[in-house]
Amino acid sequence: MRDRNIVTGLHGDELVFIPANRARDIARTWKAMLKAQTWKALKKFAPPEAYREILAFQESPRSIRGWHPFDYDTMTPVADGDYPGWPEQEVEEWMPSDIWQLFGRRMSTAINGDYLSFDPADAQKIVANLKQHGYRCRRNQRLIDAAHGN
Question: What are the structural domain ranges in the chain?
Fold first, then answer.
């Protein structure tokens, strides 16, 4: 079942909406990657699925030992902006299209492709539309920041 609990807040000067469970997973992944200095520590702190994904990025995952150093910047696609997720790019996957088509602005990056940008001035209207579709929205700036690696 789709997560109907949505968190919202600002990232830069844009309004962001993320399903709460997804936001928590991304935030936990960021926290683990930033905190872990070894693969053992990463396994301890990261969500199991994230650990498996990060391990799969490695050329020789079977040769990695717990005491080996872990550096998220060189061992994941983080530097390319492709991991652990970009909520602004994922919004089309879950938000009803009538809402993002009405309020979203399609933006483009040279490296990471398109994403949707929402104007903070439209926050109340977007939240009202999401509620009409059965979503529950709450502002949680701290979780929004954590889901962006801050």
Answer: 5-146
Provide block-wise average pLDDT over 10 residues at a time, the chain (150 residues).
88 96 95 95 95 92 92 82 87 95 91 89 97 97 95
Q: In this structure, are residues 57 and 75 in contact, taking their beta carbons and an 8 Å threshold? A: yes
Q: How far is 35 from 99, CA to CA, in rounded Å?
A: 37
pTM of the model: 0.90
Q: How far apart are the first and last CA of the chain?
A: 29
Report in angstroms the alpha-carbon separations of 95 from 30, 92, 110, 130: 23, 6, 24, 8
Q: Are 140 and 8 in contact (CB under 8 A)?
A: yes
HSE on the CB side for 73, CA within 13 Å? 2
55: which 2 tokens? Answer: 């391990």
Neighbours of 44 (CB within 10 A): 13
Residue ranges of alpha helices (H) inside 57-146 are 72-75, 87-94, 97-103, 123-132, 141-146
Tokens of 73: 């910047």
Rounded CA gap, 72 and 85, in Å?
14
